[in-house]
Design a protein that fits this description.
By secondary structure, the protein is mostly helical. Helix content is about 75%, strand content about 0%. It contains 14 helices and no strands. The model has no long low-confidence stretch (mean pLDDT about 85).
């Protein structure tokens, strides 16, 4: 290996380590702080805890309705992820594979929300949810989460469908398979990495969604975990140990979802980068 190649490789590793540390240090600091006492956090924020105490986690569950909010988040996010990926996947398949009038206009219309500031959507979405009688319901949150994830899911799945050879589905049509059977039995199994990527991104988006969960809900009965953090800050802001413990508890599902499906996510992004 030439000296210039070694130098290039060295700087690649340095760059990757810098990015990794920038990503991990904030979470590691929060995780370590969740085992400290309030006094340790305030007097030596960067030091390791003198002893590992789980009292912060006990306080987090005792002082905030985390379990209730957690269950609401699981119901809302899992349902919106499954429905969103399946329904938008069909739209992406049709846009990627069939030619029809106004195809590009429909695609741009479905994607335009990526260009709009999220604050511009608050009142229209609030009015629609009110009009449908879905205010302060899990169904309303599910509907909003599907809509927020629609453009990203559409882009990812359309790109992945474009990377699949047409001969596979043409053979299925010749054998007498219809649209839905071809989509369910042929396209979905082949496009699993694309669906996994879209599902992970939709899951993380829904799990961390705060603004609309605050605007279109009013009771603890349906509110989700991001609002539990807000409740935590407003009522117990002096208890940093419990706050950090709650943040760790809340972020764990997103990390598990990404780690479990990271191989499919990488494969899908590589396939999508070929077709664009």
């Amino acid at each position: 290996m030439k000296i210039s190649e070694k130098i290039t490789q060295f700087f690649k590793y340095v760059f990757l380590w810098i990015i990794t540390l920038i990503t991990l240090i904030p979470f590691l600091w929060i995780w370590m702080s969740s085992f400290k006492s309030n006094k340790e956090i305030l007097t030596s924020a960067l030091a390791l805890p003198t002893e590992f105490s789980f009292e912060g986690y006990i306080d987090a569950f005792n002082t905030a309705p985390l379990l209730n909010y957690y269950m609401n988040s699981i119901i809302v996010v899992v349902t919106s992820t499954l429905l969103g990926v399946f329904l938008v996947g069909m739209a992406a398949y049709v846009i990627a594979r069939f030619d029809f009038k106004f195809k590009n206009i429909i695609f741009v219309t479905l994607s335009v929300s990526l260009l709009l500031p999220i604050t511009a959507l608050i009142y229209p979405i609030y009015s629609v949810i009110r009009g449908l009688g879905l205010y302060d319901t899990r169904s309303g949150l599910i509907l909003v989460n599907i809509g927020l994830g629609l453009p990203t899911t559409l882009y990812i799945l359309r790109s992945y469908f474009l990377s699949i050879p047409k001969e596979l589905e043409e053979a299925a049509y010749i054998d007498g398979s219809g649209f839905f059977r071809t989509y369910l039995s042929i396209m979905i199994p082949i496009a699993k990495p694309g669906f996994a990527t879209a599902a992970v991104l939709q899951f993380i988006l829904g799990w961390n969604e705060f603004l609309f969960a605050l605007v279109i809900t009013d009771s603890k009965r349906v509110r989700t975990v991001p609002l539990a953090i807000n409740y935590f800050l407003s009522q117990f802001s002096f208890d940093y140990r419990a706050l950090f413990a709650a943040i760790v508890i809340i972020t764990i599902p997103s990390i598990i979802a990404f780690v479990a499906l990271q191989e499919q996510v990488v494969d899908s992004l590589a396939a999508g980068s070929v077709k664009g």
